């Protein structure tokens, strides 16, 4: 037997289609249309400064372009989010500069009423659209640029630490910092509660040492709770790494452990937040997921299979055999579902590897060549 090297041709990634679904695009369009409507009402009904006569139509035009681009599935939603956020920041920072450096002092405080509250809202929007990690650079840029404008104003000839405008901008920045800290704390608390609800509290040694995933005991308990809560739509997928014995002989035990950790990371990156991934055995992972029906659950497992096969490690394309048990007459409790999924994963390996079996039915998808020949 010999190892096939990783090929340069890979299947197209499936994550983008999931991330940029039509429902997500439609939700973004509705939100931006509301924002565009608010800007048009602002321009039509309220007095505008010399700055707003130029800047507001430019911002409205940018948002209209983004709304139109959301109809094109080839344009990533994340790119449109960044475009909207950067355009909004350009407007707010330019407006802040105009108020501090171009308006006379008696008019500054009144003008800040129109711009000040939107800075915290825009900072909050970073987390809503870009996520916890992706929002950090834009947070730093936005707050840093606002702070730099305030510092330039205070140190300038017309500025003063005690001026009402400086005090208002300082309070705006402090409120923004508190908002960001509160958002971060809320996100971390929510993630902690999700993990606690999923895994339970006080679990002894509830994590696998190699992958950091929940171990078999934790998964079995979580699966049992899910069956008691709502068995309908619940699926259990056992993912078995193919050719572990042959790989251990040819590459060593250390490589097979690295490969299992690699497959675990690849699989985890393709799952939703509500799915549970755990390690069942040394060469098996298990996924607990919910789907509208067995067909949708099987399609999700097929995407996982293709994703793993397209992520080589040290010149080797790993493949997995997946056994799927979906709630029904034979999967009436957690133990039966886990047993049947494990049996199907084993049978998928015996019938040729790199395939998905659901209730005894082999996958008909075009599977790439197996790891070993």
Q: What topology, given as strand order, has the largest sheet?
A: 2-3-1-4-5-6
What would you report as the Rg, rounded to the nearest angstrom? 27 Å
What order do the helices and strands follow? Answer: HHHHHHHHHEHHEEHEHEE
Parts with pLDDT < 50 across at least 5 consecutive residues: 1-19, 197-204, 360-373
What is the structural class?
A: alpha+beta
What proportion strand?
5-15%
Summarize the biggest pleated sheet. 6 strands, mixed
The tally of structural domains comes to: 2
Total strands: 6
Mean pLDDT: 77
Output the number of helix runs: 13
Shape: elongated
Our measurement of the CA-to-CA distance between the termini, rounded to an integer number of angstroms, reads 6 Å
The percent of residues in helical segments reads 55-70%
What would you note in describing this structure?
The protein is an alpha+beta fold and 373 residues long. The protein folds into two domains: 15-197, no CATH class; 206-362, 2-Layer Sandwich (Alpha-Beta Plaits). Helix content is 62%, strand content 9%. It contains 13 helices and six strands. The protein has helices at 15-19, 22-45, 50-69, 77-102, 105-115, 118-134, 136-155, 164-199, 216-229, 244-251, 253-270, 294-309, 334-350, and strands at 234-241, 276-281, 284-290, 320-326, 356-358, 361-362. It has a six-stranded mixed sheet with strand order 2-3-1-4-5-6, with helices on both faces. Helix 3 (50-69) runs antiparallel to helix 4 (77-102), helix 4 packs antiparallel against helix 6 and helix 4 (77-102) packs parallel to helix 7. The longest helix has 36 residues, at 164-199. It is elongated and about 80 Å long. The N and C termini lie close together (6 Å). The model is unreliable at 1-19, 197-204 and 360-373 (pLDDT under 50).
């Amino acid at each position: 037997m010999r190892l096939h090297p990783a090929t340069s041709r890979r299947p197209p990634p499936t994550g983008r289609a999931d991330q940029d679904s039509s429902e997500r695009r439609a939700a973004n369009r509705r939100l931006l249309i509301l924002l565009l409507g608010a800007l048009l009402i602002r321009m039509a009904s309220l007095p505008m400064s010399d700055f707003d006569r130029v800047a507001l139509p430019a911002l409205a035009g940018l948002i209209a372009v983004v709304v139109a681009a959301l109809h094109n599935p080839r344009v990533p939603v994340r790119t449109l989010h960044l475009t909207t956020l950067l355009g909004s920041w350009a407007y707010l920072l330019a407006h802040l500069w105009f108020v501090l450096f171009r308006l006379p002092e008696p008019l500054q405080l009144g003008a800040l009423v129109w711009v000040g509250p939107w800075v915290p809202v825009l900072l909050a929007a970073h987390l809503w659209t870009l996520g916890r990690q992706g929002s950090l650079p834009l947070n730093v840029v936005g707050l840093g640029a606002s702070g730099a404008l305030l510092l330039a104003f205070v140190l300038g000839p017309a500025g003063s630490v005690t001026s009402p405008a400086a005090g208002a901008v300082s309070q705006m920045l402090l409120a923004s910092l508190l908002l960001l800290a509160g958002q971060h704390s809320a996100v971390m608390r929510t993630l902690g509660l999700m993990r606690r609800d999923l895994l339970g509290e006080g679990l002894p040694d509830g994590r696998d040492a190699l992958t950091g995933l929940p171990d078999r005991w934790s998964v079995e308990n979580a699966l049992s709770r899910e069956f008691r809560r709502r068995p309908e739509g619940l699926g259990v997928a056992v993912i078995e790494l193919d050719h572990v014995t042959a790989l251990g002989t040819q590459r060593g035990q250390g490589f097979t452990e690295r490969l299992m950790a690699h497959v675990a990371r690849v699989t985890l990156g393709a799952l939703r937040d509500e799915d549970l991934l755990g390690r069942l055995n040394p060469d098996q992972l298990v996924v607990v997921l919910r789907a509208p029906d067995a067909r949708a659950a099987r399609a999700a497992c097929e995407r996982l299979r293709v994703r793993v096969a397209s992520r080589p490690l040290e010149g080797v394309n790993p493949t997995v055999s997946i056994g799927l048990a979906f709630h029904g007459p034979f999967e009436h409790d957690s133990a039966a579902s886990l047993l049947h999924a494990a049996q199907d994963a084993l049978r998928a390996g015996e019938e040729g590897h790199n395939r998905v079996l659901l209730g005894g039915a082999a996958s008909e998808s075009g599977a790439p060549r197996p790891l070993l020949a």
